[in-house]
Amino acid sequence: MKGVIEMGSGPNRVLIGEGVWFTSILDPKFKSNRISVNLEAPLLEETAADMAVLSLLLRKACRAYPNMTLLGSRLAELYGAYLDGEVRKHGSKEILNLTVQGIDDRFALEGENMIQDCAELLCQTLFDPNFGEDGMFGEDDLRLERQYLVDTIDALVNDKRSYAIDRCVKVMCQGEPAAVSRYGTREKALAVTAWSAAEIYRRLLRTARAEILFIGCGDPSGAMETFRRAFAQVSREPEPVPDAPVKLAAGEVKEVTEAMDVVQGKLVMGFRVGDVSDRRQYNALRMMLSVFGGSPFSRLFVYVREKLSLCYYCASRYDRPTGLMLVDSGVEFEKKEAAQREILNQLEAMRRGEFTGEELSAAQLNMVNAFQTTGDSLGSLEGYYFNQIFSGWDKTPEEDIKDLLEVTREEIMEAARRVSLDTVYFLKGGEQNG
Amino acid sequence: MAEERKTTVETVSSSLLGEKYYRVAHKSGVTMLLCPMEGFSTAYALFGTNYGSMDVEFKTPEDTDFVEVPAGIAHYLEHKLFENEEGDAFQRFAATGANANAYTSFDKTCYLFSCTQNFEQSLEILLDFVTRPYFTEETVQKEQGIIGQEIRMYDDNPDWQVYFNLLKAMYQKNPVRVDIAGTVESIAQIDKDLLYRCYNHFYNLRNMVIAIAGNFTVESAIEVADRVLKEAEPFLTQRRVPDEPEEVSRRKLEMELEVAAPIFQMGFKLRGGSAEENMRNQILDEVLVEIIAGETTSFYRELYDKGLINATFGGEAMSVRSLLSVTFGGESREPEKVYEAILERVRELKRDGIEEDLFRQCKKTIYGRYIGMFSRPEAVASALLASHFTGLELYSMVEELGRVTREKLEQRLRTEYHEEWSSLSVVRGHGGDNDEDGI
User: Chain A: nearest CA to B40, how far in angstroms?
Assistant: First the structure.
C-alpha cells in the first residue's frame, strides 16, 4: 500500500506500521526537507524527567556515531544538517520529538542523496542508540545529560517572564497534567539512571503511537520506506493516551505574590476556559483572544500599554488541551493593581460585546495572515500539523481560515463569558521568600 | 518595468543559488532591493535607515561643531514614529491584516511588516508613517513610561546583561558600550526638538533602504514608492565615532543577578576596517567560530565531557560598521576555565594550523546555512538590507565563502585573534548556590 504523494496538495497520511503514521506535506518552493518522529506517552511526574533525559541522550549520539564529535562531523558532511531531540507537552500527553532538517538533494554539491541520508540518520538515532553491551546508556553520557536537565530546570528562573508564567500555572493547576513540567521535577531529574532511561526508551518503542512528519520539497517515499522497515523490526503494542478531563470553571480566586531580586514586576493572571473540543466554540475563543490580547491593536495592547502606559507588554495566550488562558504583563511594582483592574475591565468589555466592527475585522485579517503565513516555513508547518494530529483533527490552514471567518459577534461574547479568573500571580522585587 | 524619469532597475542574479533580485535606484533617492519569491504566501518588507544607537555625535557641513545627543534616542524615535496625528500606525495596519513591528540595533533602525494580503496598502502605510513624523511634548513624555519598562525588562534579563557587559569590557570608547535603549536617566533628557533633529538628519531617503522578499511584484512596490516618497535632499550628515584603541577596556567584568548557574560571554576584539572589509572578514570569522569550538570539534566534546559547558554553548561573529568581534558564551559552573580553554585552543590552532577535514566540514556547514536562509522571505529581506548598508552585494557573500582557504583562516587567526585583546563577562547568582526549587 504505497501512498501516492503529490506536490503542493494537502497532507498525505499513510499507516506504515502498527500505530505508526507517516504524514507528508510537500511544496516545491522550499530548499530543505524536515523530518520529525514523534512518540506519544502519558505526561506523568514519575516519567517526565526520564523522557527528557532520553531525548538528550538520543540527540547526542548513536551506535554508528557514538560521540558528539563523530555525530557532529556526520551532520557537517550533510551540509550542517540540523538534528535535535526534545520533549513537548500536549494536554495529558508528553511527546518525544526527534527532528532532522537538511538542504535538498538539488543543492548538494557532491551529489549526496540528502533525504535518504537524513532519514537514515534519524532512524539510527531512534532505533540504534549508543548502548553498551549491557543494553544501557553509558554512565558518563547519562551523568552529563542528567546534569544538563537539572541545569535546564534550574535555569528556568533566568527568564523572569516565562518563570512567572510557569509559577502561575503550577499554583493554579496542582494535581492536573498542566502543572507537570515537561522536564519533570529537579528531584526526579537527579534520580534518572542508565537503567530508567533505557527502560522508558524500550517502553516508548513498544507502546507509543508514532507520528512521522515529512515536510519539504523532495520525494518522501524513500524516507517512508526507511521508517517502515525500521518499525517492522520492533515488536509493537501501541497504547493510545486518552485526553485528561479539563477543569471547567474556577472556584475562589487564588492570589499569590512572590519576591525575587528583580526591578520589574511580572503579573500573570490565569483563567479557566473549560473543555473546548467543539470546533465552533474553539474558533470563537480564538477570535475572542485575537480581539482581546493577540496583537498590537488588541485591547490589552491598546488600553493597558498605549492608553495607560502601564507596561511594555501585555498579552493573552490560550492552550486548548488544558483549557487555560493566561494574560501576562511586565509592570512596575506599584502599578500591578491598576494593570490587573484594566485587564479585567477589558475582559468585561469583551463579554458585553463592546468591541467595534473594525476591531473584529482587524482580528479576522490578522488570523487570515497568521494562517496563510504558516505554509511558508518548514518549522511552522510542522508545528501546525503536529497540533492537528495530536488534537485528533485533520484541518488544513485554509480550512481553519474559512471556519474562523464564520465566527459571529455573539459567539465571541459567549466565548468571553466562558472564561473565569482562577489565579493571580505576581512576582515582585525584594528579598526572596520562596 | 516602470519607465520612471530617474528610477533605474538592475537585475542581480546568482547562478550558484539559482536566485535573483532587483536593485532599484528610486528617483526619491531611496534604494529598493526587491526579491519576489515564487510559491510563497508572505511578503516581508523592511524599511530601514542607516542610523542606530551608536550614532550619538553628528553634524551637517554648515554646523560648526558636532552635537552629542543622549543615549537611546534612535530607539526612542523608533517608538515615536508609530504615532502621528491620525493615531497609531499599528491601527492602520490592523485594517490590512499585516503584522507590523520595528527594531533598533547599534547601526540601524528598521520598520517592517509581513502580510499575505493587501500588500500595496500595507507598503503604503509603512512608507508613509516612517516619512511623516509627528511628535508633541505630550506624546513624547508619555512614551517614557513604556520605554522605562522596556529598559527594566532588560535589566532583569541575564543574557542581555552578560552580552552588554562584554561589550563594555571590550570597548573603551565606542557607543556600543551603552545599551541600545539608553538608560532611564538618558531618556529623561529626550524631548520633541531633539527627536526632530535626529530624524531630520538620519531619516533621509538617501540614507535608507527598502528590502522586500516573498509574495509581491516589483512593479507594485515601485508604484507605491512613486506615490508616497518625495525626492530627498542630498544626505550630508557626518557622524563622529570616537577612535577605538585596539586594547580592550578590561579583561573581565562580573555582575550578580537572579540566575541559577553562572552565564558567560567571552570575546575577541578584532581590528575593524571599512564596513565592506568587515563583512568579508566576518565570513572568515564565521568559519573560524566553527573551527575553534563548533560541535564538530573534539575541543567542544572535551569541554562538554568535563562538564564545563552544556548545550547552551555557542559562538558568533559580529560586524557592526567599523567594529568586528567574535564571541563565545553559554552557561558554565566555571566560566574562567572555559575562557582559558578557548584561549589555549586558539594558541594551538595558531601553532599547529587547521586540520583539512575540519576545514572542509565547517565550510560545508556554513554553505548549508546560507542555502537554508534563501528559502525564508524574512531572512532574505533582512540579509539584503544588512548587506546593502555594508556595501557588499548579498550573493557575492556566498561566493566569497567558496574562496575561503585554510591559509586565509590561519593567517587571520595569527594576526587578529589575540589573548590580550579579549575579555570575559560573567553573570552569577547571588552568594553562591540557591537550591530552592519550584514546588
Answer: 6
Task: Note whether A319 and A421 are same-domain residues.
Answer: yes
Coil, helix or strand for B94?
A: helix
Chain B residues within an 8 Å CB radius of A76 = 294, 296, 361-362, 364-365
Q: How confident is the model at residue A249 (pLDDT cuts 50, 70, 90)?
A: confident
Number of domains in chain B: 2
Does residue B383 belong to any structural domain of this protein? yes
Residues B209-228: what's their mean pLDDT? 98
Domain count, chain A: 2
**Cβ-count burial of B2 within 10 angstroms (0-12 exposed, 13-18 middle, 19+ buried)?**
middle
Cβ-based contacts of B149 with chain A (< 8 Å): 264, 311-312, 330-332
Q: Looking at the structure, tell me whether residues A167 and A26 fall in a common domain.
A: yes
What is the extent of the structural domain holding A106?
Answer: 12-232
Residues A287 and A207 in one domain: no
At B95-115, the pLDDT tens digits run 999 999 999 999 999 999 999
The alpha-carbon gap from B112 to the nearest alpha carbon of chain A, in Å, equals 14
Decide if B260 and A154 are in contact by the 8 Å CB cutoff.
yes
Q: Report the distance separating Cα A427 and Cα B430, nearest Å.
A: 18
Give residue for cell 492552550. A319
H/E element, B145: helix B137-155
Asked whether residue A261 falls in the same domain as residue A387, the answer is yes
Q: Which residue has the cell 509581491?
A: B216
Residues of chain B in contact with residue A166, where contact means CB-CB under 8 angstroms, are 438
Q: B305, A365: Cβ pair inside 8 Å?
A: no
- The C-alpha atoms of residue A217 and residue A104 are separated, in whole angstroms, by 7
Residues B303 and B207 in one domain: no
Specify if A247 maps to a domain.
Answer: no
Q: Do B260 and A263 touch (CB under 8 A)?
A: no
| Residue range(s) defining the domain that contains residue B69 | 8-239
Element housing B44 (H / E):
strand B43-49
CB-closest option in A56, A79, A109 to B365: A79
DSSP A306: I
Query: Is residue B356 annotated as part of the catalytic site, yes or no?
Result: no
| Mean pLDDT value across residues A84-103 | 97
Neighbouring residues of A424: CB distance < 8 A, sequence distance ≥ 6: A253, A254, A255, A256, A267, A268, A269, A270, A340
CB contact (8 A) between residue B42 and residue A372: yes
Alpha-carbon A167 to chain mean position? 18
Give the C-alpha separation, B237 to B199, whole Å.
11
In a domain, A370, yes or no: yes
d(CA B341, CA B298) in angstroms, rounded, equals: 13
Go through chain A and tell me how many residues it has: 434
- pLDDT of res. B5: 59
Q: Are residues B215 and B287 in the same domain?
A: no
Give pLDDT tens digits for A348-388: 999 999 999 999 999 999 999 999 999 999 999 999 999 99
